[in-house]
Structures are given as C-alpha cells and as structure tokens.
Design brief:
Distance between the termini: 34 Å
Strand content: under 5%
Low-confidence stretches: none
Mean pLDDT: 95
Helix content: over 70%
Shape: globular
Length: 262
Amino acid sequence: MLSAKSLFQEILANDESFALFCSIAASGESQGGWENARIAALVPESERELAPKITRHGADEDKHGRIFNALMKKRGLDPVPVPPETDYTTLLEKNGIGLAHEQLKRDERLAVQDIVTYLSHSRVTEQRASEQMDLLRKHFADDPDIGRAVKQISGDEDNHLAYCHEELLRFAYAGHGRAIQRTLRECALAEIRVYRDVSLAVMANMGRILGWSKAKSAVLAAGIHAMYAYERLGGWRRMVSLEMPERRDALGGPASAAPEFA
C-alpha cells in the first residue's frame, strides 16, 4: 500500500534518488538564503529593525542547504544537477511571486510595500515548508541517518512561519491590511499551481530512477492532482490566514548551529 512514509523510505534508500532529493532541497534553501540576505541589505530605513530577523531567516536557509549537502556527503554522494522543472524557488519567481532577483541585485533601497510582498510570499511558502517538514518529522524523527536534520529544519521552519504571522500582523495594524490580503491570495493561488507542477516533475524523476511501474506513477500523479483540486477549491485559505503565534519574536537572536554529521 502506498503511503507518504513508504514513498519517502523508498526514495531515501536509493543513493541516486536520495542525491536528487537532497540536491533539490539544498538548491532551494540556498536560493532562499541569498534572497533573504539581499532583502536584509536593502530594507528601507523605516524598517531597519526588521533587518536582523531577515538576516536570521537567510542564515537558517543557508544552514539548511549545508545540512542537505552534509547528508549527501555522509553517504559518499555528490550533489547532482537540479532539473529545471523541479526548481520550486525559481519557478515561483518566474510566476511573479515574491521579489524578483533582478530587483534584489540592484543596490536600491526597497519600499515598505516590497517588504509586505516579501513577508506575504514567505508566509505562503513557509506554510508549505512547515507542513512538509512536519510530515518528515512525524515519520523520521528517530531515523539514525536523517532524524537530527529533520528535527532541526522542522523547528526552524516553524519559527519562520511564526515570524511571518507576527510581522504581517504588525504591518496590517499599521494600515497595510488590504494589500497584505490581496498579496497573500495572489501568492497562495500561484504557489499551489507551482507546487503541483514541481511535485509531478519530482515524482516523474523519482519514478525513472526507481523504476516505478506506469500504474504506480499514475496513482501518485492522481494523488498530486487531487491535492491540487482540494487546495484550489479552498485549501489555499490556510495559507492566507493570520493569527498571533505562540512563538513571539521567533527570529530574535542568532541562527542556531547546524548539527554535525559523522
């Protein structure tokens, strides 16, 4: 019987599929680290107090990239090229979600609205990341090979999500509520499409590596399409709600160190 746990176990057990999984994850995290570092450097003067938290966000993402690379190194594997159709972060940017890399490469201060856009984009994508890592934590927290990494990254993603809620509520109270809701909705509807397409592409690549039958691949593809249908019909709303988190000032202070892998 197919389940999320059995699927991940199959992917993690094979060196080639494991290297692809970690390479895709490391690439996305590294891109996120660069984006946050640039945003922190370009924060408008009126929001300079936010810069250390954005820097911490980026440092966490860089750390996650190093963790995934360390997991490969531990198994004697090298990173592999990331198929363009599986590059979640780049595809989001190409769909106009978040701040464009072209803008971030310029040494021009961002506007407050740009920070609202960044936080709204992060609110949506961190929801996805938190849910994905929660699933891995549920099934693999005690795994001797990836357990520590999963717990570390999962905790960080929860902190990132809490930070987005808190800061967006602060901006909403300051009069940006309508812009935030509009941007959140646009980001969420675009994200669920990109996530569907990337999921299909990742499963196609994994199926090729692992030799899945046409029937198995069809079942997995149907599941991905069913998830998209649920999200398109209303599941996306979980990505746009805002509430004050239990974890306040979740990104206050420096980033924690990455765990060591023997």
